[in-house]
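S1.2 Input.
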Amino acid sequence: MEYWQHIYEHFNPVAFNLFGIPVHWYGIMYLLALITALLFAEWLVRHDKLPFTKKELDTYFIYAEIGVILGARLGYILFYDPHTSYYITHPWQIFNPFLNGHFVGIRGFSYHGAVIGFLLATYLYAKRYHKNFWLLLDIVAVSVPLGYIFGRIGNFLNQELVGRATDVPWGIYVGGVLRHPSQLYEAFLEGLVIFAILFWYRKRKRFDGELIILYGFLYGLFRFLAEFFRAPDIQLGFICCGWMTMGQLLSLVMMGASTILWIYLSKRRVYE
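S1.3 Output.
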């Protein structure tokens, strides 16, 4: 266990340099996440005989990816960044990857913001190409958790979103403090477990949209629980009751919205 506990001391988050620009393992994991989700979605469409062509799905994923990136970045600025007012008055800095003339990348993304951006992008695509909005979301609901596993592993390799201090033997030393590898907890719960549940349930769903609703509720639940092992955002700390984080608050909102939407769509199905 000793090597595992000190793994960050033996690991370089930069995989290689490309024309002088460092390529981080996080970026590679993000790319793998995107490819995995897309390939699985294409398999799902073929296997379950869903009414989409490969070209249509590829186009949709471009929409979705743009929505995710925009939503994730803007969501971070609105929900987490303490300098929100600065970005409102200097919007060109939102996606500026340079600091004092040096390339540092774009830092600060919010999952919950990504969800909002993704939903808007899906709506725009469905509207433009006259596709079933809820069925599209169901395809993504089953596909994304697989990619999410790589995303959280990327967080782990990038030594970010670290866990709370602990004394468990599988903890990881970060800055001299033994911490929960909470990124891996999230990869398991919010990635693998959710994928297994939705993959099994997809043949049993009662209406289009039920899978994305179930995903939203499960993600909110598991994220809420995982936050107890994840260090709160340093710029925010605990925002309520001395224990609740911003991630937990947003997860509660996500669970509540999913519940309301499930009730609404269930009733609409009954009356159709």
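S1.4 Remarks. The mean pLDDT is 91.
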